[in-house]
Amino acid sequence: MTDTSTPWSGRAACRSVDPDELFGKGAAQSAGKHICTPCPVRTECLAHALDERITHGIWGGMTERERRSLLRRRPTVTSWHQLLETARTAHGQL
């Protein structure tokens, strides 16, 4: 996930990682999720992937399959960025 067009991407834990670790298939995707665990912009990354309907790779600690499932379960969400930021603020995780 090294999308330099977003303001948060320069702080992403994956900025210096081989993209193959984030865009693998099957079990390789699950193994690559560990990169996101300590990431300081995990919420922003996930919101971006959900709002933009990005269909490949690991974003914000979720695989493409996990994101598709989440989108199916919450079809009325119009802004994942707003939803996730509101939830993070409510839980005091600024």
Question: What's the gist of this structure?
Answer:
With 94 residues, the protein is mainly α.
Number of domains: 1
Which regions are unreliable across 5 or more consecutive residues at pLDDT < 50? none
**Helical element count?**
4
Radius of gyration: 13 Å
Strand content: under 5%
Structural class, from helix and strand content? mainly alpha
The end-to-end span amounts to 22 Å
State the share of residues found in helices, binned by percent.
Answer: 25-40%
Sum up the overall morphology in one term.
Answer: globular
How many distinct beta strands?
0
Sketch the major β-sheet: none
Mean pLDDT score? 88
Spell the H/E element sequence: HHHH
Describe the protein in words.
This protein is mainly α and 94 residues long. The protein has one domain. 39% of the residues lie in helices and 0% in strands. The chain is built from four helices and no strands. It has helices at residues 27-32, 42-51, 64-73, 80-90. Helix 2 (42-51) packs antiparallel against helix 4 (80-90). The longest helix is centred in the last third of the chain and has 11 residues, at 80-90. The radius of gyration is 13 Å and the shape is globular. It starts with 26 loop residues before the first helix and ends with a helix. The relative contact order is 0.14.
